[in-house]
Fold this protein.
Amino acid sequence: MVGFNCEWNYKPITKATGKVSSIQVACADSVWLFRVKPSEGVPRAIEHGTLGLSDISAVVLGGKLCKDSNLHLSDWESETLEENQVMYAALDAWASFKIFESVKDHDVFRKILPDHIPAGLHCSFQYIGSPVAFGHIAEQVIQDGQNNSEEIPFAVTRVGIPGALIITKEGKAKPLSEFGTPPFVIPVPISLLCTKNPNQCIPTLPSLISSANDTPVDQHNSEDREGNDDDIETTSISTASSSSDNDSNDIPITHQSVSTAGSQLLPTLMSEQQYT
């Protein structure tokens, strides 16, 4: 048997509850406390959360998890789990960990900028969800108490819509085509920038065709931008089954240690028939 509990912030005046910040698991002589890091600043690496763990493993780790329906629907309340059940459960958790380890240091594109904006960060200048220009941040900026309408120097290296009108500091509308051949620097609101793949910001020859329908880009009042979806919590939580109150059939909850042996576990437990 184990004890399980969680802690989170609570404000008695507003009765607002925070997110789980710690998880405690206790047995007869030991207590484990796991701190859960808040994920407000973690961007969404997956646009549409419809992929299962097996498909994500195929993309990130190079092979699908073996999802045997018979094993998935087997008796998980048995007093003694079969070895293949133990490995099935262990691999799910291990694969989740390895996926996070693989993608945590990768840039997540098409998202709003972080609080700390380094010079050289590749971005696109967006208007109503469409990229108007591509480039990078010209100067390092730290958004300390600034609002999303604050402007930032943006070095344009490729123009997406030459006829797009930029509202200058003087309040005049000026098409991007009149700023000359990229690269050039223009001030744009931080709220209209989102990170981009550097390959999409490679300079190209200037277009000789301008848009016939010049559409003003209101930089100061637009609230349209990509990446404004609510953050999705991605915290992994280790759970333990609770014993029933059945007086005659109490099943002791034990833990089994599964050695992953580093990267050797993945190819061993993945089904080659399901590789794509």
Observations:
- The chain has a mean pLDDT of 68.
